[in-house]
Specification:
eight-stranded antiparallel sheet
Amino acid sequence: MPTSRRAFLVSALAASAFPARGADDLAPFDKLFDGFLETHRVPGAAVAVTRGGKLVYARGFGRANVEKKLPVRADTRFRIASVSKPLTGVAVMMLAEQKKFALDDTVLKHIALKPFAHKDAKPDPRWAEVTIRQCLQHTGGWDRDRTGGFDPIGIPGRITDQMKLAGPPTPDDVVRYMMGARLDFDPGTKAVYSNLGYLVLGRVIEAVTGAKYEPWVKKNVLAPLGITGMALGRALPQNRTASEASYYDARPDSRGRCLYPPKVGELVPWPDGGMNVEGFEAHGGWVASAVDLVRFASAFDYGTKSPLLSAGSITEMWTRPTGAAGTEADGKPRAAYLGCGWMVRPVGNTGRANTWHTGLIAGTSALLVRRSDGLNWAVLFNTDANPDDKRPADLIDPLMHEAANTVKAWPAGDPFPKVK
């Protein structure tokens, strides 16, 4: 990694935060991040923790912009990649609760996009079997990991060329492209992580509400929680707000052809126009602060009334899928499984579960955790890997649990003060 980047990491300090730095009770978190950034050569990180629905810790570490030496603040916004999926999952559960559709409705009952006509394939009749629930639980029929498989979000150039588009593919374009292709397995027969399924859900949301995905989620999911700073991300640095971090690909010399004017075709860093960020939308397009993410997670704390969903809908959101998606080959329940927008790990026979999601794209690694004991945290990084090619979110996950478990006395907290 560049010498200049390494130099600043050695002396990285936490930015202004909540509570005041040095609070003895929460020192395990300060110690963890002071060491983590230096050890793993991470430019910057933001972390927020809630307990019992109140914010008890929010802090920025390192640099939001290395070149300008701008610190990460507690309210710095980051791309959250697939941590976007819980938001889309909650939006879908809300609409199901409002009787806009049933989770077992087929998606084609609600969306009327015309499949793209591929030269070498015909639309797969099994598309008529794909349900909303299957898209939520990653059982819709798409397998990016099979031999010869692919994730359509990663081939914007191919989609643009084949569909003869004027610019990078929109979410509608990606879904239409895949509607004209074959599924990889019979819907509902197994679970394979799928970004496409969440783009399909975005189309269902738009179809039944008559509104665009982003403003509908802002108004109906985020605004009731007091969240005003979240938005879908923009690819080019000049189109982002001043409160958003800069992003650093772990492969600093890697470049892609820019998809967005005025730099179309120029070689640029992947996070700065080489990826179709503005097409990620419902599967991975949101930008958020760590504080806003834990504000969202706290809306589903056990023992409190959610401002968004009924207790029954929350339970269904985390219910174990039937069949292979929820059980091992020998029939035993999976210890953890893909729920409706969340990864889910039941806690014994308590009826409770720990739920979480991670996110990863070039320049971003993100983690959101909801613990069954009333603790929630979000950790956001502005790079995707350390020098050993390990994801910061994966590395920090067990360490956050350890730090939280060593806190001897939690502060009373605050129901989300203004932090910066």
